[in-house]
């Protein structure tokens, strides 16, 4: 699904932030991504949805080389990859329900109001459907972002430290939703610092832990 | 890093998005922006109003130039000044010369009544033409093969008091001035179109910049450039068309309310539209819509190029 072969990336061009990375994310897999701040976790995730392009090596997304994608091709890739950020952005002039349905709206697809209602129910935001995003709490914003990320039924869900600003209970709720998604066949790539969260997840799902250290990607040990 | 591919923006799809109803509610993704909306509406209305006048000027001067050049080009005048005792004799000679000159379709000696009428604006209605040393005037209608220079030479030889006036001397600068005015009117129209494009582009750019975050979110969730561009293009095209329609209507009413054309008013009262000429200003709103469409599309393309 996502395949990196000896991939390198650098912002300035001189010193690469990520070097010689190889990674394969198969369908239905669950991966955590850890590493110290500034190690390049967000950069690696952005490479996965072609927000950045590798400066060396090869990166395939759903069998296609991302460096050869047109702008429409990138848009199509992003409809297959749902992304949840630590600080999710919404269209602040639209209510939650419309923000969640946004990927369908911009794709010109019909919004099934019943399915939308079910989705909002799944992230426990049914009562917030007409609320404007600025009125949501941190946890509610994350759940709304998750609902928006999965409304197109993507093959891969990327979560970039979505629990960074949440308390433990809210983090566990979000994790639970991601585990449910994974059980329904979606691949999940979850960047986090929170080892407790990783341990909690590993009790429920077969998750692999990747660590960025020294610009390279390593498979973390089983002691987590 | 690979250069963004902007060729993927499909004009046909953009046009469909513009002309077909927005069933999916895609327009709502762009928040309403009061300032740029009002700026576009006002500038389109003002420019359309000015365009109506520039168009009226171009059409009126065009008519004038055409009338002067065609009407005056068809006739020449022979002016005969001679001592009273030779006047009749030279008149006969001139008429004879004209009859035998090639290219003269008709020669008519203006009767005193007509001459009196010509002099009326200067001397009043009761001018005694016979008491004044007024030259006799012979109106010559040109036919095929008329040669003014040859006729002038013949008249010089046979009737020295006769002068051929083919109006060229005073007609040419007038026709030239009218043509120049028409040209200036058309240049004004082009300048108005260019200024409208610049203003709409600026307003669109301001709107795009203000909505940078919206655009980034849309790209992130998989919106194509065409979808994002259409939301802006549709909005600005409508504003340009609506503003221009209002400006055009006001401009046309103002032109319609001008005093009716009369002889004394000449050019000034002839500034309005005539007959099918009233259709021309109706093209201003569609033209403004076109300007809005292409200006916003250009601005949106440039802006989107900066967002991955």
TrEMBL record, chain A:
GO cellular component: plasma membrane
Name of one Pfam family that matches: ABC_tran
Keywords tagged on the record: ATP-binding, Nucleotide-binding
Molecular function terms, GO-annotated: ATP binding; ATP hydrolysis activity; transmembrane transporter activity
InterPro entries given in the database record: AAA+_ATPase, ABC_transporter-like_ATP-bd, ABC_transporter-like_CS, ABC_transpr_LolD-like, P-loop_NTPase
Residue span(s) of domain ABC transporter: 2-224
Matches recorded under PANTHER family: CELL DIVISION ATP-BINDING PROTEIN FTSE, IMPORT ATP-BINDING PROTEIN
Protein's name according to its UniProt entry: ATP-binding cassette domain-containing protein
Lineage per the UniProt record: Bacteria, Pseudomonadati, Pseudomonadota, Alphaproteobacteria, Rhodobacterales
Automatic annotation (TrEMBL), chain B:
Entries under Pfam families matching the protein: FtsX (PF02687)
Signal sequence, start to end: none
Subcellular location, record wording: Cell membrane
Chief localisation class: membrane
All residue ranges annotated as the ABC3 transporter permease C-terminal domain in the record: 188-305
Transmembrane segments: 39-60, 181-202, 214-233, 240-258, 278-300
Gene Ontology cellular component terms for the protein in this record: cell division site; plasma membrane
Keyword tags: Cell cycle, Cell division, Cell membrane, Membrane, Transmembrane, Transmembrane helix
GO terms for biological process, alphabetical: cell division
UniProt keyword annotation of Transmembrane present: yes
Domain of life per record: Bacteria
Mode of membrane association: Multi-pass membrane protein
Name under which the protein is recorded: Cell division protein FtsX
Protein source organism: Paracoccus limosus
